[in-house]
Design goal:
The chain is an all-alpha fold. It folds into 2 domains: 102 residues, Serine Threonine Protein Phosphatase 5, Tetratricopeptide repeat (Alpha Horseshoe), CATH 1.25.40.10; 107 residues. It starts with 5 loop residues before the first helix and ends in a 5-residue tail after the last helix.
Length: 279
């Protein structure tokens, strides 16, 4: 009979231990694989966000609130969920809650511009103008937009700055809107109502100041843009700013190039208006 040495016994014990550990690891892996399909993934969170947006747009604010809260429970770093919770809190007059949501959104997702922008809007509403100015600049650094520049106009008016400064800020809104319109793809531009509303709002405020810059930039875009969708967008802006009546104001300019732009835009506007619409 062969005698087992102490070394052989220790070796066998080690093998047994390793087999047990290996079995436990395999069991754990199998168990994990079994539940993985049921764990919420990023796609599930994104679907919930889309669901919340649909609820918000249809004014089901209670449903949207619950959906966005569920998003946060699954992924606490989704800044857009905090943004919409903040907007709903602000709209219902819960300003402290709104500020907390926007600030939390900035903390967990500092690259989401909407939280900075809406926080600036909240501070503007509360007359905290220095805070509003700070958050406005933060939003512009991350993703400059014409819509954000409207806040700068509102801050100037709240501070009762002179009309020249308000006019300069409105010019910036119009210039930014024109740049965005040219940069967006045709499909995105066709669906971007806020951009059109921003341009029209700024253009109308300028017209009240006897300033036709909003009309002029739209006329230039209408007559020079190669993209059909961009020209259609510019025509819509012109229509809402007064159409032919607004363009006729440009004819009073002492600058020949401005008068030429006005005539070109009026000719195109009239020719397109005379065309029969396709059924």
């Amino acid at each position: 009979m062969e005698l087992k040495t102490i070394d052989d016994t220790d070796a066998r014990r080690k093998w047994v231990v390793w087999l047990i550990i290996g079995g436990l690891m395999i069991g754990a892996i199998v168990a994990l694989l079994a539940v993985l399909p049921f764990l919420p993934g990023e796609n599930d969170v994104d679907e919930l966000i889309n669901q919340g947006l649909v609820q918000y747009d249809s004014r089901d604010f209670e449903g949207a609130r619950k959906t966005f809260e569920k998003v946060i429970s699954l992924n606490p770093k989704k800044g857009m969920a905090y943004n919409y919770l903040g907007v709903m809190a602000q709209n219902s007059g819960r300003f402290e809650d709104a500020e907390a949501y926007f600030m939390k959104g900035v903390e967990v997702d500092p690259l989401t511009t909407a939280n900075h922008h809406n926080l600036a809007g909240l501070y503007l509403q509360l007359d905290r103008l220095d805070d509003a100015e700070r958050e406005f600049h933060a939003a512009m650094k991350l993703g400059p937009k014409a819509q954000y520049l409207l806040l700068h106009v509102a801050i100037a008016e709240k501070r009762k700055l002179d009309k020249a400064e308000v006019r300069r800020r409105l010019w910036r809104v119009v210039s930014a809107a024109s740049g965005q319109a040219q940069a967006l793809g045709s499909e995105r531009l066709a669906n971007d109502r806020p951009l059109k509303q921003t341009w029209v709002f700024a253009g109308r405020k300028l017209l009240k100041m006897d300033d036709t810059y909003g009309v002029l930039v739209a006329a230039r875009l209408y007559t020079t843009a190669e993209n059909v969708e961009v020209r259609r967008f510019a025509r819509t802006v012109l229509s809402e700013l007064g159409g032919m009546d607004a363009l006729s104001k440009l004819l009073k300019s002492d600058k020949p190039k401005v008068r030429k732009t006005a005539r070109d835009a009026m000719n195109r506007y009239k020719s397109e208006s005379d065309k029969p619409r396709e059924e």
